[in-house]
Amino acid sequence: MMPVVDAPLELWSGSTADDKAAIIRAVYNQVLGNPYVMESERLLSAESQLCNGDLTIREFVRAVAKSDFYRSRYFESCAPYRFVELNFKHLLGRAPADQAELSAHIQTCVNAGYEAEIDSYIDSQEYSDKFGENIVPYYTGAKTEAGKKQINYNRTLSLLKGYAEVDSAIKSSVLVDSVATNSPVAATRATASGRIAGYKDATEKKFKIVVKGAKFDSPRRVSTTEYIVPGDRMTPQIQRINRTGATIVSITEIA
Question: What are the C-alpha distances in Å from 230 to residues 63, 99, 252?
Answer without folding.
Answer: 31, 18, 12
